[in-house]
Specification:
By secondary structure, the chain is an alpha/beta fold. 35% of the residues lie in helices and 18% in strands. Helix 1 (32-45) packs across helix 8 (239-266) and helix 4 packs parallel to helix 5 (140-148). The longest helix has 28 residues, at 239-266. The protein is globular.
C-alpha cells in the first residue's frame, strides 16, 4: 500500500488552516459524527477558531444535528462556498451539496474527488482546527480520501464490541501504513449507567478500547457512556458529556502540539 507523501498539495482554501484532523471509524454506527461535532464545539469554547466538514457522503448526519439546510448555502466571488456558521463553528456538509445525487453507488475516486472539491471550494479563511467527519470503513474510498486530503493527524473511534474492535484494527493498520499520525483512540458506548445509579451495564462488552490502545501504543482519550438523548440533540450540550469532551479537546490540543514539536525538530525551518 502506498504511503502518503509529505509534499501533498494543499488547496488554496486550506492554506490558512493550521490543523486538519480526520475523525475515523472502521465501522458505521459507532457515533463518529456526534463525537466530531462535540469535539469541534469544545475546541470552539476553548477559544479556537474551528471548522467542521461532514464528509460522510453515505450518511451525512451533521445537518440534522446542526439544523442546517441546503437553502442556507451561499456562493461568493470566484465560486467559493461560504461555510455556514452554526453554534459558533464554520460548517459545510456533503448532505447540503449533493442534492439529487446517489452517492451510495459512487466509487472511491468519485467520493474522494467530491470531498476534495468541497474542501477546496469552501472559503475557510483562518482556522485553528478543521475537523473532518469521514465516511466509515477501511476500503477503497477511505484509502483514496486519506491519500488526497492534507490531514495533519487522525482520531479513531470504536465501540467495545468485538466486531467493531476487529474492524478498527484494520483501520489503524491503514492509518499506520499511510504514515498518518493517530492522536488517540475514543471508545464510545462504553457502558450504560442509569440516572441516579452507581451500577454500570456493559451492553457491548468491556475492554475493547483498552486492548486496542495497548496493542498499538495509543492514548485512550476517553470511554464515553451511552445516553438516552434524543436523536437530534448534541452530546456536548449535556452537562455530564461537556466535561468529557472538554477533557478530550485538551488532550487533542496537547497531542497536536507534541506532533508539531517533533516535526520542527526533524525538519529544519525554511529560511525566508
Amino acid at each position: 500500500m502506498p504511503t502518503k507523501e509529505i509534499t501533498l498539495r494543499i488547496p488554496e482554501s486550506l492554506r490558512k488552516v493550521k490543523n486538519i484532523i480526520g475523525v475515523f471509524s472502521a465501522k458505521g454506527g459507532v457515533g463518529k459524527s456526534e463525537i466530531s461535532l462535540s469535539l469541534a464545539l469544545s475546541l470552539k469554547d476553548s477559544g479556537y477558531s474551528v471548522g467542521l466538514v461532514d464528509a460522510d457522503i453515505y450518511g451525512p448526519s451533521q445537518p440534522l444535528l446542526l439544523k442546517a439546510s441546503s437553502e442556507e448555502v451561499q456562493v461568493k466571488e470566484k465560486e467559493l462556498l461560504l461555510p455556514l456558521i452554526k453554534k459558533g463553528i464554520k460548517f459545510i456538509s456533503m448532505g447540503l451539496i449533493a442534492k439529487g445525487a446517489q452517492p451510495v453507488i459512487w466509487r472511491g475516486p468519485m467520493v474522494s474527488g467530491a470531498v476534495m472539491q468541497l474542501l477546496s471550494m469552501t472559503d475557510w479563511q483562518d482556522l485553528d482546527y478543521l475537523i473532518i467527519d469521514t465516511p466509515p470503513g477501511t476500503g477503497d474510498i477511505q484509502l483514496t480520501l486519506l491519500q488526497r486530503i492534507p490531514l495533519s493527524a487522525s482520531i479513531v473511534v470504536t465501540t467495545p464490541q468485538k466486531v467493531s474492535v476487529s474492524d478498527t484494527r484494520k483501520g489503524i493498520e491503514m492509518l499506520i501504513k499511510l504514515d498518518l499520525p493517530i492522536l488517540g483512540l475514543i471508545e464510545n458506548m462504553s457502558f450504560f449507567q442509569p440516572q441516579g445509579s452507581d451500577q454500570k451495564y456493559f451492553l457491548f462488552g468491556k475492554g475493547g478500547g483498552k486492548e486496542l490502545a495497548k496493542d498499538y501504543k495509543l492514548e485512550l482519550f476517553s470511554q464515553i457512556p451511552l445516553t438516552e438523548k434524543s436523536e437530534s440533540s448534541i452530546l456536548y450540550e449535556i452537562d455530564e458529556y461537556k466535561v468529557i469532551f472538554d477533557d478530550l479537546s485538551s488532550k487533542v490540543v496537547a497531542q497536536m502540539n507534541l506532533i508539531k514539536k517533533k516535526i520542527n525538530q526533524i525538519i529544519p525551518q525554511q529560511k525566508v
